[in-house]
Amino acid sequence: xxxxxxxxxxxxxxxxxxxxxxxxxxxxxxxxxxxxxxxxxxxxxxxxxxxxxxxxxxxxxxxxxxxxxxxxxxxxxxxxxxxxxxxxxxxxxxxxxxxxxxxxxxxxxxxxxxxxxxxxxxxxxxxxxxxxxxxxxxxxxxxxxxxxxxxxxxxxxxxxxxxxxxxxxxxxxxxxxxxxxxxxxxxxxxxxxxxxxxxxxxxxxxxxxxxxxxxxxxxxxxxxxxxxxxxxxxxxxxxxxxxxxxxxxxxxxxxxxxxxxxxxxxxxxxxxxxxxxxxxxxxxxxxxxxxxxxxxxxxxxxxxxxxxxxxxxxxxxxxxxxxxxxxxxxxxxxxxxxxxxxxxxxxxxxxxxxxxxxxxxxxxxxxxxxxxxxxxxxxxxxxxxxxxxxxxxxxxxxxxxxxxxxxxxxxxxxxxxxxxxxxxxxxxxxxxxxxxxxxxxxxxxxxxxxxxxxxxxxxxxxxxxxxxxxxxxxxxxxxxxxxxxxxxxxxxxxxxxxxxxxxxxxxxxxxxxxxxxxxxxxxxxxxxxxxxxxxxxxxxxxxxxxxxxxxxxxxxxxxxxxxxxxxxxxxxxxxxx
DNA sequence: ACGCCTTTGAAGAAA
DNA sequence: TTTCTTCAAAGGCGT
Length: 577
Prior knowledge:
two-stranded antiparallel ribbon, single chain, 25 helices, DNA-binding, disordered C terminus
């Protein structure tokens, strides 16, 4: 059983945090040389090419060890499809990148994400935290506009529009802030969730201080300005909140949030009764609609009879009644998803490509090319997302969403895939093939493709600060220890001080010791027994100073070197149960 | 109209 | 305990 630090879940931050990094020599060096160096697609391409070559030359076992192996259907590997290339071909005009030089992609770094949380020492209760982060930032001119959840859904929102997702209205960074503004209307927060945020520790109500919030939205005009963002309208203007309402009004997926008092009534307005079943799923106890919630009627299968015709169109005949009735609560986004959300627009803007498959391949490469600290930010964000999600939807389980998507031809694939295939497929998976040499985006750094591909750097293994916790248990124990997905072989880094008994122990250790992994993160290579750090190590508990970009970075570098030859550090978070 | 593709990560189920 | 499967976002493409 996961250990709860504070019993309440407030101590999540305290528990969690261990940071470990996994290393790849090349990547490390590169990072050290130029942490912020931009990797371009060209590099990716080159790296890919190299990878392919290398793969063929190097032993499979070796490769397997060094590379993360994406879990994919073996089939895909058998017949790798180069979406990237294909997409490029389709794009006959305009070349891949708009800019030949491909300036790179300045990361819209989320300001020190850790600050808000770390400052408190632990993550505040989800609701509070969430509010803290979101509400203050929402600038809704005339909050009334959106806040009146009772008003009919905005015309631009059709019934079919998923309640949760409005990518175009989300600031690039917002995704990182998960259920953010999208979900909360700028209006006055619910009374129970009022801006008067209780201090997690003291319980004393307090208004979020700008300083606390700012870190999350450091989008200084200059920083952001560097990159013309497709979502520019969301970009905060100087002195103004990031989330200004679009001319047409604020399209908030969850107008209901704008309401103070009667959330339920609001909710009902936003969600039809059948759409919004009351607890456990539809709304959190707090009554806060969550972006993750998608009404079945809207997104999933239509409700029987009561739903709008459009909704019906989607539903296949006999639908599970119960499921339909339940709102669809989406899974919290993981670090990579958050990253993708943020960077997709940028990549699309840089490239003429629009196909997600191709874009995702690029993003995958970029992800690997990110420095640990950069990735750590996303892991941390993801961790917080999970925490928040779990707090908002205590009873929710990822399993709830199983089967909602149409099953793929798994069975057939499985049949096709024999043991051999699996084996071979794994090896093959190491390489992502999507970059045709000739059509790559030009990039200055194309010469060092290898770096991108850090052969061995499984993203997972990369510093992933986030503590993966079981969703359910997360409430109780945000940071649970879990073994790393096996599909991606990784190097395991022994964690010092930690009994290798099992991954589960890590959670306890983390909880018990305030900074077990911190030391790792900081670069103190601790040699621990065996537990592999397969998952991101949450470092929320770390002192802000340590988390400061500079310090953290340095630490990371240190750890990097120290670990350079050691195997990637994986974070183990598992419930002791 | 709907599913696939593609990526990584998290979580749960199955072995 | 390990392995495998599903889902999360996204949007063009194919059926």
